[in-house]
Write a structure and sequence with these properties.
With 293 residues, this protein is mainly alpha-helical. It has 13 helices and no strands. It has one domain (8-289). Helix content is 75%, strand content 0%.
Length: 293
C-alpha cells in the first residue's frame, strides 16, 4: 500500500540502502584486486538471477513473459551491462571518492532525457539550477588534476561518467511504457539475465579473469549478488513503489557524500577542497533535481 509520507520503517530501510550503496563502491574497489572488473560485474549479475527469482517466488510475484517486452528487455539489459562495466572499470582505475561524485551525476543526464522523453518531467527553473550545480560538480571532479584530484585516473573518471550516462539510460528505459508495465522485479531480472552472459563473454577482452584472488574476494562476489544487487536494488524499488518517489529519490544525495567518507576511512584516500567542493555541488544538485511541486 502506497503511503503519503515516510514512516519509521521506510526511513530505516532508506538509510540502510543508502549506506549499502555507498559502501558498495569500496567493496567493488577491494574486490577488483582479485577479480577482473568485467568478469566481476558479469559474475555478479549471473549469480543475482537465482536470488531475484527466489524473491519473486517467495513473494508470489508472477514469473512470466509479457508480450512486447522482448526487445525492450534485451535493450535495458545491454544498457545495464555497459553501466556496470564502466563503473567497475572506473573503480579499478580511479579513487572511490572521484568515481562516486562523477557516477552519481546520473540525475543530471536522467533529467535531460526525461525532459524530452517522459510526460510530466519537464525541467523547472529550480530543477534546471540543480542540474547546473551537479554538472559543475562533475566537471570540477574530472578537470581538477592537482592535489587530491591527482590521485585519480582520467581514464577512470571518464569511465565513471559513461557509467552515469548509461545508468540514466537504464532508469529512462525502466520508466518507458514497455518496461514500466512489467514491474520492478521483472525489470531487474531482465537486467541481470541479459547483462551476466554479455559481460562474462566480453571479460577476456579486459585481461586475465583472476588477479591476486583470495577467498574473501569470492565472499564479496556473493555478497554483491545477493545483498547489493538483489536485496539492495529490490528494496530501493520497493521504497519507490511504497513512498513518495521524490522523498525517496532526494536521499540519493547522501550516497556520494558517504562514499567519499568511506573512501577516506577505509581506503585512506585524502580529502581536499576540490573533492569536497565537487561532492557538495553534486549533492546539492541532486536535491534540487528531485524537487517536485
Amino acid at each position: 500500500m502506497r503511503k503519503d509520507r515516510l514512516d519509521g520503517v521506510g526511513l530505516a530501510a532508506l538509510l540502510g540502502v543508502t549506506l549499502l550503496l555507498a559502501a558498495n563502491q569500496v567493496i567493488v574497489k577491494i574486490t577488483t584486486v582479485g577479480l577482473q572488473p568485467a568478469f566481476f560485474a558479469g559474475a555478479r549479475s549471473a549469480l543475482a538471477v537465482p536470488f531475484i527469482i527466489g524473491w519473486m517466488v517467495w513473494r508470489g510475484i508472477p514469473l512470466r513473459y509479457t508480450p512486447g517486452t522482448a526487445w525492450p528487455g534485451l535493450l535495458i539489459g545491454v544498457v545495464f551491462a555497459v553501466e556496470f562495466l564502466c563503473l567497475f572499470l572506473a573503480l579499478d582505475l580511479t579513487t572511490v571518492s572521484r568515481a562516486a561524485i562523477i557516477f552519481y551525476s546520473m540525475p543530471v543526464w536522467l533529467a535531460i532525457l526525461a525532459h524530452f522523453g517522459l510526460p510530466g518531467e519537464r525541467l523547472t527553473i529550480l530543477r534546471a539550477f540543480g542540474l547546473a550545480l551537479a554538472f559543475a560538480g562533475t566537471a570540477w571532479a574530472i578537470l581538477d588534476r592537482s592535489g587530491t584530484g591527482g590521485q585519480g585516473s582520467l581514464a577512470g573518471d571518464l569511465f565513471a561518467l559513461v557509467g552515469a550516462l548509461f545508468w540514466a539510460g537504464t532508469a529512462f528505459l525502466a520508466r518507458r511504457p514497455a518496461m514500466a508495465k512489467v514491474g520492478p522485479e521483472m525489470q531487474l531480472l531482465w537486467m541481470a539475465a541479459v547483462s551476466g552472459p554479455l559481460l562474462i563473454l566480453a571479460s577476456p577482452l579486459f585481461g586475465p579473469l583472476l588477479r591476486a584472488v583470495e577467498p574473501m574476494h569470492w565472499v564479496w562476489l556473493v555478497f554483491q549478488a545477493g545483498v547489493v544487487m538483489a536485496g539492495g536494488f529490490i528494496t530501493w524499488l520497493w521504497l519507490l513503489s511504497s513512498y513518495p518517489p521524490a522523498t525517496v529519490a532526494s536521499f540519493s544525495f547522501l550516497t556520494p557524500i558517504l562514499s567519499i567518507v568511506f573512501g577516506w576511512a577505509v581506503m585512506g584516500e585524502s580529502l581536499g577542497p576540490s573533492t569536497l567542493g565537487a561532492g557538495v555541488l553534486v549533492a546539492a544538485g541532486i536535491i534540487l533535481i528531485n524537487r517536485r511541486r
